[in-house]
Structure formats: C-alpha cells, structure tokens
Design goal:
- By secondary structure, the chain is an alpha+beta fold.
- It has one domain (53-250): Fumarylacetoacetate hydrolase, domain 2 (Alpha-Beta Complex).
- Helices cover 20% and strands 36% of the residues.
- Strands 1, 2, 3, 5, 6, 7, 10 and 11 form an 8-stranded mixed beta sheet that branches. A 5-stranded mixed beta sheet has the order 4-13-12-8-9, with no helix packed on it.
- A hairpin with a 7-residue loop joins β1 and β2 (67-72).
- α1 (10-22) crosses α2.
- It is globular.
- The termini are far apart.
- The mean pLDDT is 95.
- It comes from Sedimentimonas flavescens.
- This is 2-keto-4-pentenoate hydratase.
- InterPro entries: Fumarylacetoacetase_C_sf (IPR036663), Hydratase-Decarb/MhpD_sf (IPR050772).
C-alpha cells in the first residue's frame, strides 16, 4: 500500500508533527483529510520524521478494509515502565504479536499455519491520546491520520512456550488503581487474533515500511476504551498469556 503524495495535506501534517514534537495539542488550521488515502499519506509523513515504527495497530470493520496505524518505536516500552500523562490517557488491554522472523506471503492458502513460526504472542497495554483539540478531534479520518490516536505501547513478556494456538475467547483482568475495568470472560475483536494479523498483512503492503521482524502488531482492546488520570497504576492480565503493567505519571506544569 502506498499513499498519494503530500499536497493539500502538507499544512495539516506539519501542524500535527509540531504537536508531536512539542507534546501539545493543536486546533488544526490546514485542510483536514477527506479520505483514508489522505490520512495514510499524513501517517507516512509523520513517521518519516518521528519513526521508525515499533509496530502497528489494526481495527477491523465489517465489509470494509481494515484501518491501521504505525506505533512509534520510541513509544514502545517494557512492562513496569513509567509513562508521562498530560491530563488523562486512554488504556486498552490487548493481545499482541511480536514478529520474530520474516512473515510468509499473505496470499498463501496456509498463511495462518505458516505464520505461527514467525511470531510469538504477548500481552500489551495500548495507551491512547489525541494530538488534536476542538471539534476536529472527533473526526474519524483525523484520528486515523493521527496514528489512530495511539500514544504509546507497554509490552509484556512474549509467551515462551506458545503452542501456536489462536486467541479468541479469553479470560482477563484489567485494573486501574482500585477500578476494575475487566474481570472474567471476553473476546478478541473480530474473533481471531491470528485473523486480525492476517487482515493487516494483506492490506498494509509497504505502508510506513510494512511489517518487519522486531515489530509488534496489536489486535484490538478486549474491554471498552477507558480514559484515566495520571499518577495511577495500571495492571492487566490475560489468562494463558501473562501480565503487563504501567505507572502513569502526571507531568508537572
């Protein structure tokens, strides 16, 4: 997949890049994206300046191409890290895949079997925040251009003795401070973590460099996105996969 050249999106992309670099939010003055192609062109522009990609997030929609966004390598941190928060931040517990070898051709019929020798699963916490203020922050294509509002990714330990099985129906727990966001049975969005990886691989092509060994692919939250304040501990667990945690710390004014 390749996006169109940066033309009318240049001003918006430069505004967004400035917001990333300053750690602030902006009310964009430039023309906003009106198509997924324009949003992906902005992603490519941003990653060229902020990259490399440490992974990708993907969302599946019925009867539509998957939506996808790179996750900056600089914002991928190990479990137990401290992560700065300006005011509030969204948290999501997800199944992730670490790519450990070049992936097979996404068109091959036995992809779901072949890919298991190239990946290992791990629990992750995605951190979600926008770089946009004002009404534009709710625009789906603006969110897509803004790396689908990814703020960071916290990585649990890869599962050392994975048997190659898929993740579909899960038992999990997600807690923020004293608030329990998830406890008990849940499901991977779309019903298959391997299927979500395959959908992304079929769609991504060379967008933002494509999928590469060492990167992480995340497969969607297993509980509703929840925004929480800083100065709080977040801990997630997926049965049979492991635990992951992060300390959210409010930045001083």
């Amino acid at each position: 997949m390749t996006g169109p050249p940066m033309t009318e999106m240049t001003t918006f992309a430069e505004e967004l890049l400035a917001a990333y670099r300053a750690g602030t939010r902006i009310a964009p003055q430039g023309a906003l994206p009106t198509s997924a192609a324009q949003a992906y062109a902005v992603q490519s522009y941003l990653l060229a300046a902020l990259g490399p990609a440490g992974g990708f997030k993907v969302g599946l929609k019925p009867d539509a191409p998957p939506i996808m966004a790179p996750i900056m390598a600089a914002r991928c941190q190990p479990s137990g890290s401290r992560y700065p928060v300006t005011d509030r931040i969204g948290v999501e517990l997800e199944v992730g895949w670490k790519i450990v070898a070049p992936l097979p051709d996404p068109a091959q019929p036995d992809y779901l079997r072949a890919v298991t020798s190239c990946i290992v699963p791990l629990p992750v916490i995605e951190l979600v925040d926008t770089r946009i203020s004002g009404p534009a922050a709710a625009d789906p294509l603006v969110k897509l251009a803004d790396f689908q509002i990814n703020s960071g990714l916290i990585l649990g330990a890869p599962l050392a003795d994975w048997d190659g099985g898929d993740f579909t129906h899960l038992t999990g727990r997600m807690q923020v401070g004293a608030q329990v966001l998830l406890e008990g049975a849940t499901e991977v969005p779309g019903g298959s973590a391997l299927g979500t990886l395959h959908a992304l691989h079929r769609a991504i092509g060379d967008h933002c460099g494509g999928l590469q060994p060492g990167q992480i692919v995340i497969t969607g939250t297993i509980h509703p996105l929840t925004y929480v304040p800083g100065n709080i501990e977040v801990r997630g667990e997926i049965s049979g996969l492991g635990t992951v945690s992060v300390s959210l710390e409010t930045l001083s004014a």
